[in-house]
Structures are given as C-alpha cells and as structure tokens.
C-alpha cells in the first residue's frame, strides 16, 4: 500500500510540470516589412491584401485611414489548420488623408507563403526606396530586393527582428482573407 | 408460648448475631437467612428456624480497613499484563495525510492558474490590419 502511494505521488509530481508546461502552438507567420523610407515624409499608410492559396490576391482601391508608425511594420497571419498557404500584396502609400488619390510608393506581392504546422515563422519583406515607383512607373523586375516572391523562405520567428505584438483588436480580428482588408476601427482598438 | 421457640431463640442468642443481609432491591432478593413474616404466606411450621421474630438490624456502617504494614517497594511483582497496543497516531501526524493534502493544494493552485491565466494569443502586428486569420 505504501509503495502504491509512493508511485501515485511520483506520477503526480511528474505530471505537474507537464501540466504547467502546456502551451498553445500557433501556426502563424509574422510579416515584417522593413524599409529605409521615412514615415510620414515618404509613406504614411500601408495596405495589405491577403488571400489563401498560392495566387496573388486582388487589390482594391486603398480606402484605409489607419496611420502607421516607423518601420519595421508587421502583420500577423494565422492558419486555423485548413489553410496550408496564402498570398499577399503589400502596398505603401503617401498622401492618405491629404490627397484625393493617395500615391502608391512601393508594392510587392508574395505568393505561396506556406504555413509550418504548429510553428511560428517570420517573413522579412524589404520595401526600400530603390523599389519605389515613379509616378505610375514601378521598377522593372530584376532586382531581388524589389521583385515579387513566390514560395519564400521563412525564418523562425525572432522577437528581436519582429516588432512587439500589438494589443490592438484583441478578440476582434479585422483582417479578412478575401483580399478586402479593412483597417481597424475604434471598436477594434478597444474603445467603448 | 411454646417451649420450642424459646429453645430456638436461646440457640440463636448463643450462636451470635446474624450477619445483616444486604439491602434487597426487591422482595424476591431476600435471602434465605432472613424471611420476614408475611400475611399472605401461610405459616410454615416446618421452617420455624428461618423465621425471625424481630426485624433485621440496620446494617452496620462500613469502615475502611486500614492495614498498617511495611511496604517493600523494591519487591513489587512484575507486571504480567499483556502490553497495550501502540496508540494510533492522530491524523495530523501521519505523513500520507499531509502528502495528500499538499497534493490537493498544489493541484488546486495549478488548476486555478490554468483556468485563469490569460490565454496566449497569436502574433498581432503593429500596423493595420494587425492580424489576419485564415480557416
């Protein structure tokens, strides 16, 4: 009887750290946008269109009003388990709120970004001044720092590279994986 | 008066005082030595010796018997009674009790922590749209 109790206590003691160590594993990708452009002198808004699958999402006319901070900027993408990959188009604008038609500064499309099951990955996407469009003319393909990417190599999530996660829109995700991403509202930001 | 009772009375006096019987709880407990006369009981001429003409004297007060004798404490006889079983320890002095109680407390603390801790969240960026979930 004593030996049985000792075994039971040993099992409990062994199970305690396992219970305490349980944590959720997210299948997610953090998009980190780096740039040498200045906010708000060069760019003052960002639009991210996203869609599941290996093909580029349709882009709409930018209608957002959300402001951005200094680079690096980041957006989180999470898979619920049934989406193995997704594609995005990131655009940086200037003149949002001051011009009738904001000016597109930089645009890059990344297709077939593959989730790693149970893993937190990171995609660093440079959007530098050298990739900026001049008027309606954007740089021709050939510069690997500016070209669109397909099936990019993801890095393990590195909190030293990715900016701290925002506390915005907790419990009210605002991104819609249909290419129509609306900016967060005051309600999303937690305002009453 | 017939001479027979007188003879018996004289014999009783010569015999000495009769030891008083203990106080009977019920009349049935009355001993054979003293039988009170009863109206209902017919006179039994065949047992005249058990009939007492006078009521039993009151019991003499018992006095403690004090023996005065030298006591040799060194020569006390050894106890021969079987050893008493070890007294059962109270619950609070038994280690399984504290082990189970401690385990229960630790379990409740862990359960409370797990149930009330803030749920971890997926990464949310620092710029709009912050977070895009896929199915």
Helix content of chain B: 25-40%
Q: How is the main sheet of chain A built? A: 4 strands, mixed
Helix-strand pattern of chain A, N to C?
Answer: HEEEEEEEE
Query: What's the total count of β strands of chain A?
Result: 8
Query: In percent, how helical is the residue content of chain A?
Result: under 10%
In terms of per-residue confidence, which ranges of chain A show pLDDT below 50 for 5 or more consecutive residues? 17-23, 170-174, 176-192
Largest interface, with counts of residues having CB < 8 Å to the other chain, equals: A-B, 54 and 25 residues
The description of the largest β-sheet of chain B is:
none
User: Looking at the structure, what is the overall shape of chain B?
Assistant: rod-shaped
Structural class designation of chain A: mainly beta
Low-confidence stretches of chain B: 29-44
Strand content of chain B: under 5%
CA gyration radius of chain B, whole angstroms: 45 Å
**Any idea what the shape of chain A is?**
elongated
* Strands of chain B, count: 1
Q: Give the DSSP E fraction of chain A (strand runs of 2 or more residues).
A: 25-35%
Mean pLDDT of chain A comes to: 79
Give a brief outline of the structure:
The complex is a heterodimer of chains A (192) and B (135). With 192 residues, chain A is mainly beta.
If you had to describe this structure to a student in words, what would you say it looks like?
The complex is a heterodimer of chains A (192) and B (135). By secondary structure, chain A is mostly beta strands. Chain A has a domain at 24-156. Chain A is built from one helix and eight strands, in the order H-E-E-E-E-E-E-E-E. The radius of gyration of chain A is 21 Å and the shape is elongated. Chain B is 26% helix and 3% strand. Chain B has two helices and one strand, in the order H-H-E. Chain B is rod-shaped and about 140 Å long. In chain B, 8% of the residues are buried. Chain A binds chain B through residues 5, 9, 12, 16, 19-20, 22-24, 26, 28, 30-31, 33, 46, 48, 50, 52, 64, 66, 68-69, 73-83, 86, 120, 157, 162-170, 173-177, 181-184, and chain B through 96, 99, 103, 106-107, 110, 113-114, 119-135.
